[in-house]
Amino acid sequence: MSTGAEVVGAAAPVAAGVTPVATGVAGGVKAGVAAQADGSVPAIATSGLSKRFRGGQLAVDTLDLAVPQGAVFGFLGPNGSGKTTTIRMLLGLITPTAGGCRLFGETVDASRVSTLTRVGALIEGPAHYPYLTGRANLARYDAADRTADPATRARRIDRALEQVGLGSAAEKKAKNYSLGMKQRLGLACALLQPRDLLILDEPTNGLDPQGMREIRSLITSLAAQGTTVFLSSHLLDEIEQVCTDVAIMSRGRLVSQGSVTQLRAGQRARLTVTTPDPADAARVLAEQGGTDVQVAGHRVDCDAREDLAPDVVCAALVASGVRVLAFGVERPSLEDAFVALTGEGFDVAG
Amino acid sequence: MSQDEVLATATVVVAQTAARTEVQTATPAVAQTGVRTTGPAAAAPSSATPSPWRSVISRIGGTLLVNELRTMFRRNRNLVLLAALAAIPIAIGIAIKVSLRHHGQNAGGFLAQVSNNGLFLVFASLSLTLPIFLPMALGVVAGDSISGEASQGTLRYLLVAPVGRIRLLAVKGVSLVVFCLVSTAVVSLAALLTGLALFPTGPVTLLSGDSISMGAATVKAVWITLLVAASLLGLAALGLFVSTLTDTPIAAMAVATGVTILCGIMQVIPQLSAIQPWLYTAQWPSYADVLRDPVYFSGIEHNLEIQAGYVAVFTLAAWARLTTRDVSS
């Protein structure tokens, strides 16, 4: 569904086929359950989701989000762009002012939370009972889920602790945990049961590089088993490495939604030459058919179009006597796309 | 099933929970596919458990209630509170014993009786702890119940675990009732053991002048303990409500402990005579009427009515607040 979503320009909210989803589910929950088998019901679908806080601030503005089942979905946006408010609405912690959201086709709000047994979540950092051990913390959260089988509790807790590498610190009180250990414990809590959807807000926050790698490979392996992962992060490298789809928020609005490739496609790759003869190089690039040729000091670059073979261009440069110090195609990073969509400004949106 | 229903409607809280929550599915595998049993068939797992009491427990919170109680009574802060409560009767007993030996003096009221009969230390201790110490301990625990979870962020994780908000409120409410009972019982037991250890025992002279056996008097002591615990229920509900209002536990605790002092002040201002009978502290001393023969029920009944009223009003208020609140902590 959302795979068909186009990457659109800033400030235009994406209506990524959410309407047919909503009508399809209106047919009944049973239909929704049946439709899950072929993955036609999105793991997350919001339509016109909005939240205005009591102070009058519009934190989330008519958000239409569609996360297909099985996706590893990156959810990006500058600080204060409404990501966490959105996640809290998805989980029924905050009531939307307008619009609604469905997880696997079922509504979630403050009074209907049963679907959340299928969801593991890490929201705005972990939270624990400081006076309980790591294991006792997990036991408490597990006891809270009435679908969790008490008979398998100990085994599942052990497994979750192993998965996040906390096995040896299980009997330590949570108040003695380091930031990274707390983060791991929070992840363990999300992994207590096999989940269909993981909503992870900054999962690698506070982790050491080894921890980050482990968590990344954990996410990848969970996704390979069919778990949908909804990942909010500021680490764009991380998003680029693990995510198949992304959505970008800015000032409460969705400014872009699509696959990582599509998003990057919005930013053209550039063919760059570093040379002491910039004028000659610019001329040759233009002759070869390069468009948007720009010269900045010793650096000359142009759009790297498909028909512009780098090897041919390089040979032409050398043949024309241009002294080439460096030559290459610069692929735009997700960061470039992100900054292009959300602006350079450093100050948070008010 | 019908027995379950009768039990489930025993209290307002239980009835609400039973009506709103779906019944536990037996196998996690079924839960994973999102298929849930509802309606009559859903009663199967709970009726499969041997005792109806367990079924009620499972409805109002199941393993979460067990976990909540275990967490409550393993937390150091609460253990210190209970230890402090237990120390009060011990201190009183020792003080009376010592003052008897040195001065041969005697205090008034229940305290005067303690040196004649150790059982009176139970009544004396309850009459001394009920106005201040028991409400303070309860105020701390009740005020912290929801706001503490909110401030440490665990409220959001409980809610997405998921725990229905009504179920969470029911679990917190029931655990507060248990705390009322346990804290009062701790005072009574500590007093009973201290009294028996330090003072003579024998027939007990009631307030009405009759004399009853030690055994009969112990039964009365149990009743008094239960009545004192019940006297605290109104405050427990009030504390629970205040606790849903804020993310700052210290504020909720201050209100929940301070309001008893406020009631005490209002009780002695003559201009407030119109509302005095409806303060939750109004009939707190009524438990002493158990020590009459025949038992004088009017004050006790009034006290229980007041407590039931406070529980109903503040439980509903807490329900209204918690179920509509944005959890952004």
From TrEMBL, chain A:
Coiled-coil residue spans: none
User: Has the keyword Nucleotidyltransferase been applied to this entry?
Assistant: no
Q: Keywords assigned by UniProt?
A: ATP-binding, Nucleotide-binding, Transport
| Matches recorded under PROSITE patterns | ABC_TRANSPORTER_1 (PS00211), ABC_TRANSPORTER_2 (PS50893)
Q: Does the keyword Transport apply?
A: yes
The ABC transporter domain sits at 44-276
- State the source organism's domain of life: Bacteria
User: Which InterPro entries does this one have?
Assistant: AAA+_ATPase, ABC_transporter-like_ATP-bd, ABC_transporter-like_CS, DrrA1/2-like_C, P-loop_NTPase
Q: Which GO terms describe its molecular function?
A: ATP binding; ATP hydrolysis activity
Q: Which family does it belong to?
A: Belongs to the ABC transporter superfamily.
Protein name per Swiss-Prot or TrEMBL:
ABC transporter ATP-binding protein
Originating species:
Actinospica durhamensis
UniProtKB/TrEMBL annotation, chain B:
Q: Where is the composition biased (Low complexity)?
A: 37-51
Any keyword Transmembrane helix?
yes
Does the entry feature the keyword Membrane, yes or no? yes
Checking Pfam families in the record gives: ABC2_membrane_2
Q: Which UniProt keywords apply?
A: Membrane, Transmembrane, Transmembrane helix
Q: Where are the transmembrane segments?
A: 79-100, 120-142, 176-200, 221-242, 248-269
Positions of the UniProt region annotated as Disordered: 30-51
This one is known as ABC transporter permease subunit
Q: Which organism is it from?
A: Actinospica durhamensis
